Amino acid sequence: MAAGVVLGVVQVLPGVDAAALVLRDDARAQEMVSASDGWAASVEEVQYTLDEGPAAEALQAVARCWSGT
Question: How many Å apart are CA 7 and CA 20, to the nearest integer?
Fold first, then answer.
């Protein structure tokens, strides 16, 4: 099911070449649920390994909102 959603995002949104769905909990444990291709999966892994990139920045911003800092 998740793979179909991710592939659908790539097909429907203009300018989107790849997508990944990653879930993360409060303990910073993460699980990649699906990716449209190997490249998207690799990009997500690099972002979380380095804690840099748009996905990591978005998660940091959400954490600041929830913590109030």
Answer: 9
3-59 tens-digit pLDDT: 677 778 888 888 988 888 888 776 667 788 899 999 999 998 998 889 899 888 887
d(CA 19, CA 29): 20
Taking only Cα atoms into account, the Rg of the chain, rounded to an integer number of angstroms, comes to 13
Instruction: Choose among 10, 27, 24: nearest CA to 58.
Output: 24
E strands within the chain? Answer: 20-24, 30-35
Global pTM value: 0.70
Length of the chain: 69
- The answer to whether 35 touches 21, Cβ cutoff 8 Å, is yes
Q: How many CB atoms lie within 10 A of CB 32?
A: 15
